[in-house]
């Protein structure tokens, strides 16, 4: 059933901070329709990962690309609104998904209206399946939702209370219905509510959400909003619709008429219509970090499509073709003269495009759309051209005949990072993409005097009509504009011809020079001086500028509205501009300023006032790849003209500080200058003294990262990391995650005391580490503990018996515990698991000296996954009590010698009613599989690896749906289809993987 809130719940899980922090990669894919080829879904997944359109449907190529993106990553995939109930197709999809070699612990969440889908997934042998069926809301919850959207206070008007039961009966427990009714009432006077509900809603012949949607639509006012609403259905379901994009489409179609009385711009009218659609719940607002977009619920989308197509004239006016195979047939069947909007996936022939001479909107997208026909120049009524989702890289000269063009979208921004950018600062900014960088602009675009949206302008030769002066006549430009190839601008006078200071509706500008040799640095400085923006500008990027210093308009505080500034790859710049007094600057990114050796006092201000606040609202500061930066001066060194020391606040609200690849930087402001700092990253080749100084006096952190992600997550030069730095971690009461990797000089973590908020502790590849913190049992919020590749560890906690973990229990909150590559470890006392009632995953591997691990699983009743691998000397005192684990789903054990197999608790394992997957790892000289294997009657998946001498399977393999045999040469030969002696035992198993 639709409208229950399945997608809403899935989205809440998808955005949950714990989910985001736990998984390396998250993907959201809205399937929304029944597909007959699984390649379609894999293409959706690839697009979610890379935003890449791939030509054709070659499954191997698509899956290979996905596998590359997910290599060694723990992923969380949401398949929303899945409609396929074909078992063969679903089994094929999830088997392929399981074979991607992603990191252990990956998850897939599926939402569907079909019971059959859930039944099929529950039978799949490779899926740890859990089903959650949403029910209807109770009346009180529905009433609460309706009141919220109707903007009703706790005291409900009597008129509404009198018909409460009737309204709730119409809601039928569906949150979407309650939301729509509330949205409908929110636009009406309270005295009209009763009549609306009685006459239109309660007496309607049609029931359910469809009737509620019809009433909501009928009450939309003014009338053009109805056209705007219906038009939204031309976009594919679950499309993320940006505010500007929606309004641009409505403008292009003529739905927005200027208000002659108060001279409101069409754009402002569009924003008002959008607000009404949001208020009535016919559109939904989605916010994520700094991005906001809009979407339709799938039921609302279906209704809008019915409205759009309910008369033949609309069917001829608006056409979206999402399948290139049906393109020609569909288009030829339409009356070309009446078509106003065309969305087309794939290319279009020159002669065909010319038929649609009355088009207002043309959107070409898909990997097969590679060329824009020259006949585009005949579409003289075209207001909006969008090729942003295509591979078109050449703009024909005939494009300049489109004198009515208001919007040109080619695709300038990607939500991505530099190739070498793998830190969290990349999530905070939008980098200019390479899309369109090679495109030559048509000659004379200055004649597009109606143009409002132009994402980028690649400067060309002035004598060919491609110079920067073409921008001067485009007075109505708004939004974001990137200007490239600025090395072709001949000084300040030439740059001023763009008239950027007279374009108040541009909120974002990017200035970029090319990599060509400059005649002089002065030329760049003069050009930038002439590019002074309007004071309304909110975001500015300056890229590859080769001047020594920045322009005067920076110093004169001309950018009083600036919120974000990014300066990157300006390798000759010596001196930073004075930015400390910009009143609204929240985000500052400085990258690749290789000639800057000092961030001096002028960085804060050139003023001499004695009482000031510098960077009053700055929240994010990033210093990256400043190879020669040695000193960052403290603002408190400034003195007034009278010689007094300034009284000032500096960085009062700074929350995030990123310092990366600044190998010479050792002097920075006193850490107490960052009173609100929450996240600190010092990564990639930074001097260890920098970390030591920053950590000396900061107590506000919730996230601390000290490593080089390109060098296995470590600080370069970590061998000299002062050990007392670790003892300071207790100074961070909000710290939630600590990861220490490749710190070879560290021998002990005793004395390290973290906070009650710590959730994840990872100690990895510290080859000389012998002792871990002595009071881990006091880390009451710890959920994930991982110790890996520490071959000299011989104690865990306190007291400290040699070659063992200590006697104190791990914290009750612990959910995942991993120990691997600790060759000095000989025993794990059972007492350390005394309080581990929340433990879900336990993984012990490659501890070659371990001889004792007598864990009684009654101490860990929540265990779902248990792995014990590559501990060859563990023969006696092995774990037992599998039968007490009521949630156990997966076990991985081995390699086995014949002796160790005897001591294993096979009987307990056989009594587990929930066990589904077993993986056994053997030894080359193991001659037989444990005979108890045939007692595991509940398992549906069995994996056998590295049993070199085994040549026979058990006579009975239970109810296996999947069998994998890997690196078992004798057994592989005997499992040859039809002819192998073991073939009859496995021929009925649906899925067999034999390597």
UniProtKB/TrEMBL annotation:
Highest taxon listed in the record's lineage: Eukaryota
UniProt keyword ATP-binding present: yes
Keywords annotated in UniProt: ATP-binding, Leucine-rich repeat, Nucleotide-binding, Plant defense, Repeat
Family: Belongs to the disease resistance NB-LRR family.
Positions of the NB-ARC domain: 1-151
Protein name: Uncharacterized protein
Gene Ontology BP term (one): defense response
GO molecular function: ADP binding; ATP binding
Domain R13L1/DRL21-like LRR repeat region per the UniProt entry, residue ranges: 468-592
The keyword Nucleotide-binding belongs to this UniProt entry's keyword annotation: yes
Segments of this protein annotated with the region Disordered: 416-438
Pfam families: LRR_R13L1-DRL21, NB-ARC, WHD_DRP
InterPro entries: Apaf_helical, LRR_dom_sf, LRR_R13L1-DRL21, NB-ARC, P-loop_NTPase, WH-like_DNA-bd_sf, WHD_DRP
PANTHER family associated with the record: DISEASE RESISTANCE PROTEIN RGA4, PLANT BROAD-SPECTRUM MILDEW RESISTANCE PROTEIN RPW8
Domain Disease resistance protein winged helix: 234-304
Parts of the chain that traverse the membrane: none
